[in-house]
Amino acid sequence: MLLGLARWTRAAGHDTAVVESDAPDPAVLARAASERRKLVTRARALAERNAGAILLTGDTLDEQAAALAGGADLDWLEAPFTRCLVDNQPLRTVEPDRLPDIPDSARSLSGPFRTCPACGRSYWPGSHVRRMRARLERWATAKP
Fold it and tell me: Which one of 22, 55, 92, 119 has the fewest CB atoms closer than 10 angstroms to its CB?
């Protein structure tokens, strides 16, 4: 239910786990405890069963981002674009011999070029990164 927000917290550089949408509450609570994670949810009943949980009630991504920043003291500019948006792994700098994996149109950019060691996705600073950074900066400077 918060997959979009999770991808944005990863874009900001935060280690962000996501549970399956059909995971039973006891399993979610156990995973949060065993991994020492802050539980973020839209499910009131689940939040009530975890003293440190952050209950997000906003419907828009901007509302959820503001609530998360306030409730978890989250820095939206922690380490932008250093984690895979899909599987949460820390990205590695692309080695020169792997540059052919980067599209021709992106190779002329200044970089950095990064890759996910788990899934092999490549990342580069295209126009989408400028737009994403602008959003992260907007969230970082928003007044609660």
Answer: 22
